[in-house]
Amino acid sequence: MSKYELIIYWSNEDSSYIVEVPELPGCMADGKSYVDAIKNAEIIIDEWIETAKLLGKDIPEPKGRLVYA
Q1: Residue 8 pairs with which residues in a beta bridge?
Q2: Is residue 19 part of a domain?
Q3: Half-sphere exposure of 68 toward its Cβ, with a 13 Å CA cutoff?
Q4: Which pLDDT tens digits describe the chain residue by residue (69 residues)?
Q5: Are residues 36 and 18 in contact, defined by beta-carbon separation less than 8 angstroms?
Q6: Domain that holds residue 42
């Protein structure tokens, strides 16, 4: 299980749950159920990190819960 923060919401337009991973730019997933969306997000997080490594990019450390002012 990833330690990155996940933002999960329902999209009427897509008829799916959407998961955003704010600490990994552009990292998003979806799923027809809440559980499927989270499972898909875990796969996409792993793929995001693998791709970043291949491209020699920095991989952000998970910060956990983001704090908003």
Answers
A1: 19
A2: yes
A3: 1
A4: 789 999 999 999 999 999 999 999 999 999 999 999 999 999 999 999 999 999 999 999 998 665 554
A5: no
A6: 7-54
